[in-house]
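Bug #2210: token dump truncated for AAA+ ATPase domain-containing protein?
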Amino acid sequence: MASFYNQVPSVSSVFFLYTSFSAITMLLRTILNEVVPKGIREYITVKLVDYFSSYFQSDFTFVIEQHWGEYVENQTFLAAQVYLPTRLAGLTTGKLLVGSNNLKNPTAQPKLGIPVDTKIMDEFEGIHLEWNLHNVKSKGRRDKQYFHLTCKKEFREKILADYFAYVTESAEKVMRHRENLQIFTYNKEDSDWESTLAIEPDLKTTLMNDLDAFSKGKDFFKSVGRAWKRVYLLYGPPGTGKSSMVAAIANQMKYNIYDLQIQSVKEDGELREILTSTTNRSILLIEEIDCGSDILLSGLLNFVDGLWSSCGEEKIIIFTTNHKEMLDPALLRPGRIDVHILMVYCTPLVFNKLVSLYPKIDGHILCDAIEKLFLEVSITPAEITQQLMASKDADIALKGVIEYLETKKIKRKKIQNWRLMEISKMLGSKKQKHNWLSSAFSYL
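Reproduced locally. Full output below:
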């Protein structure tokens, strides 16, 4: 024991060493301040801090921000948003985010979300991982969100090479099997091919085959150097089912819908920000494209032609219009719109589908009379649907359809008679007949 105390330095010795070290440190600081330029001193300080913090710190943190660049959504962030709710069993605190956007069934089981500033533990090939979602308040804009993913330093390269790919693949599987769709800007009612959309069977088959080929076309688009996108134009009179067709496509593909009102966009910069913020596996819907300004149309076409490959993949663009003849020829140029779909007036096949959906009957004695009226009167599926929904009684509903068609037929006859009278006035005397003949036919 005595020998141990003999080895302990005296207080005076410790004090002497401390003062000597302090003096040397002050001398070195003075020399550095006098000789070494300030910029180099700051650089050396930063490097020393990084070195010692790296030496003593065993963890490494990946920062995954919501946006990559000024406008584009960070696809890794979006994948984490989808993946992490499947790992909520790894929550380390006693709180859980729950909610529902199911307007059709408010009592449905709520969905689970990712709480802010709450640790979610995960494990990948024996590696323990820690996720944390952070939120930063921002004035005038949406709050900024970002994830922290923390692991041991020695697994950094493994996480970069394999884990992020695993998260993305897992998110894609979840997206392909989700039940509820999100429709941005407006709350449109979800639908599906069999329950709410009445279209010609041939058109349905053709469109479904095209969508199926598109969903499986990743390797093809990559091999030909084209962005993985598909552009559709739905055109035809109002009420012929263009909006229902969009909802059916979204439900078939399990895609979200971004409903862009092109008339409300003021400038190209705003348009670019909106377009680049849409996610993968989504539909960009632009209704009444004929009402957009030439400047915004130019920006839209430039975006469609040139930037899709750097702003995500597996996207569908759908334009709708009631007047295809009024569209800018630049939009209809080959290579821009892949599929043109004419939405027509109600046909017997579509009518029979609507009858099976609303009165829920298969055939009726009044159906033949209604189908014959279709030869004389043009009527949209929306008009037929409105009449069929007037009563749950099939007899009353179908009689209402006949009365509606007969009324339209009488109005159409009156309009034709009025036009014939106007033509007679235009023709005037026999001398003027030849001069007005071409104008009369075009008027009809």
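Output looks complete on our side. The chain has four domains: 2-45, 59-180, 201-342, 350-443. Marking as cannot-reproduce; reopen if the truncation happens again.
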